[in-house]
User: What shape does this take?
Amino acid sequence: LEKDAGTRALVKGFSKSVTNYEAVSNALTSARTVASRDAFEQTLGIASEFVKTCTGGDISEVFMSDSGIRYKEDGRDRGTVSASGAQKTLIGLGMKLGLSHIVKSPFGSLLLDEISADMDDDISLACLTVLGDYCEQALVVSHMPSDVADNVIEL
Assistant: This one.
């Protein structure tokens, strides 16, 4: 069979098709990697803007390093291990807001539970005020009477 010209042509064509499929697969994998990286960078950018605004610039950036998510506070590179509860909450909320911009909900809403529990009143107010700039509608569960909202449902 190997000496048959038709079989050789079929095998050669199959090899070429496999090579083409591998090239397409590699291109799609590369595009997915680039898209994932771009989405993550966009998420970190939104998180940085949000946290910077809420802290009045005390935290200037949220970024990724080999050791995980980090932030810059007063120009110093810090790990989230050393962050206060409020800082961790703000960074986490910033990441959620960033992800919500990438994965659009058909409802245009975020459901957030006790986001201001670890924050003092000033940071809580700043956070909740700035939140409206980043999402169409946020449903916030809170036990803090100082939290600000357009509509309040008391249970």
Observations:
- The first helix runs from residue 5 to 54.
- Strands lie at 59-65, 68-73, 76-79, 109-113, 137-141.
